[in-house]
Fold this protein.
Amino acid sequence: MANAYWILTQRQRCDLELLVTGGFSPLAGFLSEDEYQSVLHNMTLRSGALWPIPVTLDIPAELAQSLEPGQPLVLCRADGTPLATMDVTDIYSPDFVYEALQIYGTQSLAHAGVRLLYERHPFYVGGPVVDIDPERSEVARHVDFLPPYYTPWELRSRWKEVAKPIVAFHTRNAMHGAHFALTRSAIEQTQGHLLLHPTTGPTNPGDMSAALRIRSIAALTASYPKQAVTLSTLPLAMRMAGPRETLWQALIRQNFGADYFIVGRAPADPGQNPDRSDGYWWPPYKAHELFQSAASQLRIKPLIFPEYAWNKRQQAYMPKPLKDPANDYATLSGSWARRRLSKKENLPQWFAPKAVREVMESAYCQQDHGLVILFTGLPASGKSTLATALRNVLLVNDNRQVSLLDGDMIRRQLSKGLGFSPEDRREHLKRVGFVSQIIAQHGGIALVSMIAPYEEGRLALRHMIEEWGQFFEIYLSTSLKECQRRDPKGLYAQARSGRLKHMTGIDEPYEVPSTADLILDTAQHSVPALVDAIWNHLQERGAVRGLPVIQDLLSIER
């Protein structure tokens, strides 16, 4: 039975990652129909294990109709690289209205989670998933997820050295003073070590970007006692499912080795409910009640906290009473901060420590010159991998907008219809250069990942860009032998068999760059080491600033 292929969405990619690393334990794959119904009705798997949120893989009708139980379904990254194989057990059509009512308690399109649910493909496919190649999956983690990211295994190893109770804190927003006061209190109550575990997967539309959240949270870590905090990002695609999701988040942190999970006011609530005066979709402390009812099924212990707010009289953050007749407390939220910043208004001193405010304010005000980096080399030399990994580091350390222009993706969009003749290849690079020039002209960063086999075309690209910003050419000198060994998309095999024509390195030439700014062999060094080399070169040339926020946090040995 032939394999079928599916390119994962960003949300599905996050789910796959947590499935294969154990973050979603005891799940071994996407839910079958029986397991899905059990989660909807009982908040448990069929085994009786607590599991409140369905983890499902939605696919279009055309693919669903071509699949059969027992058939392998290959799950691929956005660029087509295979990551995992699903052994298909179920293909079924969900009732999205019923799912919305069970998970969200509403079918209103005013709820952000319901809107996203209704936008899914009409079929679910279930079955266990397994890594195709652990080495490839490890590289993909560096590429797909923002640093500093550590798997459950890596964090559990770290906790052996910490030798304290681990207190996990989930956030989809930048942390402010109330979060700081609340987490400090949690450390004192438990005499524990704080895991700041912000999500970097898709969240509520309109939330602050994941990169800015991480940068601001990293700045906040300096305000805690020394060695009291570990920061690790979490590639979780949030469902905005309120109490159910909060319980799910605790189970996930249990898999990451945490002993306690902080539960605050109205967690995982997207707000903007037109039918409630406070805008919430659930009573603010409904999650507290759910944790109490599920306590016997949890190893992790909830730390229940009321709302913390700034007391104007006491000049301190403290628990806010349910009623505040004297109006002693200042109201703040992530949306409130975003509104101020979008109007170029500084945040008040009491909002957060100075380092945090500076990160957030500079992100809305800083202007920089453009930067374009071309990654060139043979197919499978590591261009897309390094470009995307560098993008992640830039996102959390630089305020400029970062655009990734991958040659294969651009071909499907901007250069559809072009072939692989020398003329078409030059035209393809010219079009990518035009887009890169516009990005640089407006002060952004473009990371261009292309074979770009001809010296003439690469020089023309350099001249186009240097009028508007800095240009760097990075040549990945990975040998043809190593590229063929990797061959993640099977291109070299197709070229050797004659099924694929005009393959660079096989029947088309690649002109080794004579003007490369940096030459790297991806077979000789790890992805983090290569990114460090690129960053150091860019820093020496004045293209980027130092690493004021993240550099000291990338310290857990992999």
Notes: The longest strand covers residues 123-131.
